[in-house]
Design brief:
Number of helices of chain A: 13
Strand order of the largest sheet of chain B: 2-1-5-7-9-11-13-15-17-19
Largest interface: A-B, 35 and 35 residues
Radius of gyration of chain A: 22 Å
Helix content of chain A: 25-40%
Number of helices of chain B: 8
Shape of chain B: globular
Oligomer: heterodimer
Number of domains of chain A: 1
Structural class of chain B: alpha/beta
Helix content of chain B: 10-25%
Radius of gyration of chain B: 21 Å
């Protein structure tokens, strides 16, 4: 049955009461552990077609034969994969009646981020009618998107309403056997976002998961698929700038991007999950596979990330530059403090002719944390005139932290030009002195210098995001000097 | 891959003279395996060709070493033929403060020093080829520069290998005592060597206030494999420089490790390579900063042509106590053929905050505009390219402070380029 845009718009309108849907599911949480029955259960609960169940089962059997990767420069106690609820309804926060009942620490952080009171209520799960307001804003946006033929919905909806697109592109960029966590995700993913931009359409607004109700709670195994058809453009924002206290310990998301001829995808992430306390207790394990495929000629994929949260980060947003003249970009700021560990970077695979890639990575380590950049730039024999520039800088604050760089560069074409440079240093005493002399206290001085250092990347974020990201950097580094 | 025991069995008749040899044999025969491409540090280099071969001990012997000399070089030579010391071909060293001989032929104080230092720096527990060397080396050069002595003439260790399927393990030990100064050249030549395997391990201890220059010239022939492992242990305010020139070799793997242990050390690593044919060259360096106020510099430059492959992996480790470290590392490559490839991985691992560390690497080709500039001034393409390659190699050449050797390396690059063009 053909599915029309009007129907989509109608359906999107009807989505605003999904909060009810959550409480309904809470009772039928699946038992802990992973096995074929659990996967069948997930699939049937979601009323999925047979092919998707088969896909999941195949991924599960692949996963069973794989080993957890240990090459990353991070250390953590092993994850017990049988001790996780693979099917629990998206977690809801306890609803409270007023902000007085919310953790004051959380509220003070909201204040520092400059989040409005109404917004604070929404984020802390205060049941207020403000939600209705934001939903109506959301709906009007969605109508506009519908008019342009843009599909932007949850993954489960896409499976039912656009099976042909999902079937075609699911696993086309990150195959199920790509790595241990991608296989796990393929077997048990619960939901995520789906976005399709039709030919020649320039998406008029930044698409954000923020506008989709429940998004902040989609859970551990998220699956995102963004397809930009020929000549289209989309800017996609992921994540939430507020410090959501997620209870899930393990996050293994998969993000796949596909850009056709002349299409451009800009994908921005601000990640601020719970990093654990200052003694390194608790915190999220963030094991994410993100990859973009520049399928068409002149296509472009740009990743921008600001990573300040999570106890362990294992994340390498990559670009496969298949189309001739395609471009890949990676801009990253990763901050680690206390006992956080991050191993993040990118892969740029140059396959097509005249492909270009740029990598700018800024790592900041403080406290007792470890921050690693790990990247691969590979130029295949057919990639004539491939060009790469990489710059990885690390800033160390305090004498107990570590900053590491592990770049792999492989060139197999004699017309390739590849440059890589990396520096590691601390904040100069003279810089701090200069600020102190002008009446700026040390903490502010550090924040000023760090923001200047990260500016090159922050500038790539959409404006509202950039401002919040700046504040986040300051908050993450609080107490790291003096 | 062939069976490890079958491979090792071929060498079991070599006597174990030093106690460390017995221990290493136990390691290599039992738990320790030869690396495969699954090992991170051997990711790009397959050693199967070395392990699958049957080796024989040849009785090849050169009549003189004149043809293996470096023109205009006035050096004191020690000669090893197929891993064994050859007294007749070696020079007599009479310099005061210098002990220059074979590891096996030492006695008294020197023998005690060998027993104390041999196997102290090279790890035979984790590194299979080092363990293999320790287990089965026949001999090697022992150099001791006594306190405060300066050796004016360069010392050359000529490691000659010849014959079909010859395998040599050479084991050198250099003890540079306090405030001493010396230049050493390790000259590896595969003369009439076919399908051989040369495995050299050199352990160096550089004392407080001393200065060492060590040059490795690798020319074992296009059909041979070479694994050349060097461990430099630096103390005090010493300065050490290691320059590696790879001239030939089907498979060459260089492991250069610096253990920087004293305050105010300076460690320099330079390398130059020009590969052709089906050569595979792998340079691994590791600078381990364990003390504060040290400096390390590294520059490796290479040209890859035809079907050759190059690997560079440089690692700078700055430990927590090594504050005020300055470490620089650079690897620059020119690819002249679409069938050639380069895999490079410059690594930094830093646990101290008050440091200045940087690394960089580039892959590119001869600049078209520069070529055009030169050609518009009447140089033909070959001459123009040659000039650019010379300029490219220039900053490593400058680091060679023995004029005759510098000339020799420049001539090698020059000639290699002409041969390629022909």
């Amino acid at each position: 049955m053909a599915y029309t845009e009007t129907e989509l718009a109608e359906e999107l309108k009807g989505k605003k009461y999904e909060f009810g849907f959550v409480s309904k599911f809470e009772s039928d949480k699946a038992p802990k552990g992973i096995n074929e029955d659990i996967i069948r259960l997930i699939s049937s609960k979601k009323n999925e077609p047979e092919w998707l169940l088969e896909y999941r089962l195949k991924a599960f059997s692949t996963w069973q034969q794989m080993k957890e990767p240990t090459w990353a420069h991070v250390h953590y106690p092993p994850v017990d994969f049988q001790d996780i609820h693979y099917y629990s309804a998206p977690k809801t926060k306890k609803k409270v009646d007023s902000l007085d009942e919310v953790d004051p620490e959380l509220l003070s952080m909201y204040d520092k981020l400059g989040i409005s009171v109404e917004e604070q209520k929404r984020l802390s799960g205060v049941a207020v009618d403000v939600v209705v307001d934001s939903v109506s804003v959301e709906t009007s946006f969605k109508e506009k998107l519908g008019e342009l033929g843009i599909i932007f919905c949850s993954f489960s909806e896409a499976v039912h309403n656009h099976p042909e697109l999902v079937k075609k592109y699911l696993g086309s960029v990150v195959p199920m056997n790509d790595n241990f966590y991608a296989a796990l995700n393929a077997a048990v993913f619960t939901d995520g976002s789906f976005c399709y931009i039709p030919k020649g359409v320039r998406c008029p607004m930044e698409l954000s998961t923020y506008f989709r109700i429940n998004e902040a709670n989609t859970g551990q195994f998220e699956r995102t698929l963004v397809i930009a058809d020929a000549g289209s453009y989309v800017s996609y924002l992921e994540g939430c700038t507020a410090p959501i206290r997620d209870e899930n310990q393990l996050h293994a998301a998969v993000v796949e991007l596909v850009a056709m001829d002349d299409a451009e995808i800009k994908y921005s992430t601000v990640q601020n999950w719970y990093p654990g306390d200052e003694n390194g207790k608790g915190g999220i394990y963030n094991f994410v596979t993100k990859r973009g495929l520049c399928e068409g000629r002149n296509s472009k994929i740009s990743w921008t990330q600001v990573e300040t949260g999570s106890a362990i980060t294992w994340k390498y947003p990559s670009c496969i530059l298949k189309g001739d003249n395609s471009t890949g970009e990676f801009y990253s700021v990763a901050v680690t403090n206390h006992y956080q560990q991050a191993d993040t970077g990118t892969k740029m695979m140059h396959i097509g002719k005249n492909t270009k890639s740029t990598i700018i990575s800024k790592g900041i380590s403080a406290g007792k944390s470890n921050n690693s950049y790990r990247g691969l730039v590979k130029v295949l024999p057919k990639a004539a005139n491939a060009r790469n520039f990489s710059q990885c800088d690390s800033l160390l604050i305090g004498s107990d932290c570590g900053a590491h760089t592990f770049p792999y560069i492989e060139a197999q074409n004699s017309s390739a030009k590849v440059e890589h440079e990396a520096t590691t240093s601390k904040i100069g005493e003279d810089q701090i002195f200069y600020c102190l002399q002008r009446g700026i206290d040390e903490e502010k001085a550090v924040s000023l210098i760090v923001n200047g250092y990260a500016k090159e990347v922050l500038n790539k974020l959409p404006m509202e995001f950039a401002i919040e990201a700046q504040k986040l950097l300051t908050i993450s580094l609080e107490g790291s000097v003096g | 891959m062939g069976d490890k025991q079958t491979f090792l069995k071929q060498f079991d008749s070599i006597p174990a003279v030093f106690p460390v040899q017995g221990t290493a044999r136990a390691h290599i025969h039992n738990g320790l395996d030869f690396p495969t491409t699954r090992d991170e540090y051997w990711k790009y280099t397959r050693v199967n060709a070395i392990l699958d071969k049957d080796y024989i001990d040849n009785s090849w012997m050169p009549s003189s070493i004149n043809e293996y000399s470096i023109p205009a070089m006035d050096s004191i030579d020690i000669v090893f033929v197929n891993g064994g010391f050859n007294k007749e071909l070696s020079s007599n060293a009479s310099e005061s403060g210098l002990v220059f001989g074979s590891v096996l032929n030492q006695d008294g104080e020197n023998k005690n020093l060998i027993l104390e230092h041999l196997g102290k720096y090279a790890d035979s527990e984790k590194h299979a080829f080092s363990a293999f060397n320790t287990s089965y080396f026949k001999d090697g050069a022992f150099i001791r520069i006594k306190k405060g002595c300066e050796i004016k003439r360069p010392l050359r260790i000529l490691n000659l290998s010849g014959g079909v399927n010859q395998a040599n393990n050479l084991r050198n030990l250099f003890l540079i005592e306090e405030n001493a100064q010396v230049q050493i050249i390790a000259h590896n030549i595969g003369a009439e060597l076919q399908g051989g395997f040369v495995n050299v391990v050199t352990e160096v201890s550089v004392g407080d206030g001393s200065n060492l220059e060590y040059y490795l010239i690798e020319n074992d022939g296009d059909e041979s494999s070479l694994i050349n492992t060097t461990h430099v242990h630096q103390a005090g305010t010493s300065t050490a420089k290691v320059v590696t020139l790879t001239q030939s070799g089907r498979l060459v793997r260089n492991n250069l490790n610096f253990d920087i242990n004293g305050q105010g050390c300076e460690s320099n690593m330079y390398g130059i390579y020009f590969t052709s044919g089906k050569q595979h060259l792998d340079n691994h360096t590791y600078a381990d900063h364990r003390s504060p106020n040290c400096e390390s510099n590294e520059l490796y430059k290479g040209v890859m042509t035809e079907r050759s492959t190059g690997v560079f992996n440089g690692k700078i480790m700055v430990r927590q106590e090594a504050q005020k470290t300055n470490a620089f590392q650079s690897n620059q490559n020119i690819l002249l053929s679409d069938n050639a490839s380069i895999n490079t991985k410059p690594e930094l691992e830093i646990y101290a905050d008050d440091v200045k560390c940087s690394h960089g690497c580039t892959i590119g080709q001869l600049d078209d505009e520069a070529l055009f500039y030169l050609r518009s001034r009447g140089l033909n393409k070959l001459e123009a390219s040659k000039l650019l390659i010379q300029a490219f190699a220039g900053d490593v050449l400058e680091e060679i402070s023995i004029p005759a050797l510098q000339e020799y390396v420049a001539e090698f690059i020059h000639k290699k380029f002409e041969d390629l063009d022909a």
